[in-house]
Amino acid sequence: MRVGDLDETELLARVVPLMPTEALLGPGDDAALVAAPDGRVVATTDLLVEGRDFRRDWSTGADVGWKAVAQNVADVAAMGARCSGLLIGLGMPADLEVAWVEDFAAGVAAACERFGAVVVGGDLSAASEVLVAVTALGDLAGRAPVLRSGARPGHVVAVAGRLGRSAAGLDLLQRGVPDAPPELLAAHRRPEPPLAAGPAAAEAGASALMDVSDGLLRDAGRLAVASGVSVELSTRTVLGEWIDDLGDPAPVLTGGEDHALLGCFPPGVELPAPFAVVGRVVERGEHGVLVDGRAWTGSTGWDHFSR
Amino acid sequence: MRVGDLDETELLARVVPLMPTEALLGPGDDAALVAAPDGRVVATTDLLVEGRDFRRDWSTGADVGWKAVAQNVADVAAMGARCSGLLIGLGMPADLEVAWVEDFAAGVAAACERFGAVVVGGDLSAASEVLVAVTALGDLAGRAPVLRSGARPGHVVAVAGRLGRSAAGLDLLQRGVPDAPPELLAAHRRPEPPLAAGPAAAEAGASALMDVSDGLLRDAGRLAVASGVSVELSTRTVLGEWIDDLGDPAPVLTGGEDHALLGCFPPGVELPAPFAVVGRVVERGEHGVLVDGRAWTGSTGWDHFSR
Predict the structure, then answer these.
(1) Nearest chain B CA: its distance from A290 CA (Å)
(2) pLDDT at B240
(3) A196-205, pLDDT tens digit by residue?
(4) What is the CATH superfamily name and number for domain A7-139?
């Protein structure tokens, strides 16, 4: 059965019950109602487009649903917050199998269970390619949000989560490598952002925090610009901690979509697990990011339009 | 200049400053922070896809930006709330003119000014067609949300705003009518939902409220199902009030996208302007909606997949 064989009401009746939808008021009315107990709400949105952000021959519907949730809850965690609700827009061609949509919803549900999230609303639309628009809401529990702009010279730079795994998995898919390591393919298809590290970093007194979605170098560069500082990274610490099995540092430094957290902490702060030091913050210099004391001359990560 | 000539940072630097972005924390970090003063937040999302929801030869970028905002703030109003923030995802082909994106942002800004909204976040992505994903957040100011499910037999049914104008404008564009009435084309391109009527209905004690996005009959049918009632509409009141200049009742009863508000009120409630009575709520019968005492046998409005 294909999407075009059902009307919107019938399609919603099939997929909404597959997902956890508890909220003050969930799907079914003109809008949802979500608790915002401290009088503020964190909000972030992402678009995923078939052929750009995923391929249906490389990822199942469930993989796409998982990833759409994971990358948005990671953005919420990167403010130091916990996700309080998701809104999911899904555009699809009329000839898409309904089974794919049900699988997508199952992936959303699995990620919701893993990350402690619920779906409060959404929208369906026809489109010529599959596209997913997710908005995540979050609760800071009274804490101040941790911005990108608070890093100061002398602070340590640390990463929670793994780097380069998603890019390595994508590379294996692109090259069609047989018997590719399943854990690298899984890292691309179903990233596991270390969500609890976000609120933990906020509690510990992190001065800056962000999601590493476009590669460590590119995102550290953004943090450096926002904070008016430079960041010195050490490949020994970055590489030593995460990917002994990959020789080339480039995927670790530039690969996106692992949704690790990049945090800066004032001196003397005990880093919450699983943060590990990867560098330090220095006065703003000619380059926003230095790798082992030098400017990086390779590619710097993902950009939607320039590659 | 085309979108593909710029990287994401450059494109954001061009369009973000065109829009009002005041919030506790607006665009630029991993997520926004929006005030939710009564401890709850209303949230709704919509996808607009080129070729389905708009055509670039019939609507300017500014028209598309306006409409994307209008239909989402209408959903917030339909809960009885006021918009507290918008998140806007924009997908586009690399060969799209940057001027179109700037025009889109100007249309978003114009609608924000008209409707009292601000943009707090968003996302850009490459796509093979232009697509817009808007999430609107809203504040109920301590009121209970007005749902679709509260209508009871004996309540009056009323509409605020005009009906059938957007569909009439779309029909003129589809038929290529020269010298079409500009106000009908404008109704299609830049709908003007009667936003203030939402909170006013909530204050007045409306028992049910919803946005008329897919046509009065279809949306009244949804309200009837949600409330477990039937709705009797009178074409004399519906037509007499709004479109003396259109003879056929079908566009008024089935045309979508005007984003009028459909409300039900207990007997004796003084209707807030501009609500006007169009019918009454009765015990649930064989048909969810009756028109002049009979079941409607024509088409019932917009469905994304079945037409």
Answers:
(1) 21
(2) 66
(3) 999 999 999 9
(4) PurM-like, N-terminal domain (3.30.1330.10)
H or E, element range at A76: helix A61-77
What is the location of CATH 3.30.1330.10 in chain A? 7-139
> What residues of A are in contact with residue B126 (Cβ under 8 Å)?
49, 52, 304-305
Q: Which CATH architecture has domain B156-295?
A: Alpha-Beta Complex (3.90)
Which tokens in the block code for residue B199?
């909170």
Question: Measured between CB atoms, which of A8, A39, A46 is closest to B123?
Answer: A46
Chain mean pLDDT for chain B: 93
Domain B3-139 is classified in which CATH homologous superfamily?
PurM-like, N-terminal domain (3.30.1330.10)
If DSSP codes are grouped into helix, strand and coil, which group holds residue B161?
A: coil
Q: Which residues of A touch B211 (CB under 8 A)?
A: 30
Which residues of chain A are within 8 Å of residue B37 when distances are taken between CB atoms?
39
pLDDT in tens, B114-130: 999 999 999 999 999 99
pLDDT at position B176 over 60: yes
Cβ of B45 and A133 within 8 Å? yes
The answer to whether the CB atoms of B30 and A122 lie below 8 A apart is no
Say if CB A79 and CB A145 are below 8 A apart: yes
In a 13 Å sphere around the CA of B91, the CA atoms on its Cβ side amount to: 30
Establish whether this prediction's ipTM goes over 0.95: no
Tokens of A93: 């061609």
Where are the domain boundaries for CATH 3.90.650.10 in chain B? 156-295
Give the SS3 label for residue A74. Answer: helix
Q: Where in chain B is the domain with CATH 3.30.1330.10?
A: 3-139
CB distance from A133 to chain B under 8 Å? yes
Instruction: Give me A2's structure tokens.
Output: 């294909």
Substitution target in A38, A45, A97, A227 with the highest count of B β-carbons within 10 Å is A45
Average pLDDT over residues B153-173: 93
* B32 in contact with chain A, both atoms CB, cutoff 8 A: yes
| Residue-level pLDDT at A243 | 47
Tokens 């809104």 appear where?
A87
Residue of B nearest to A121 (CA): B44
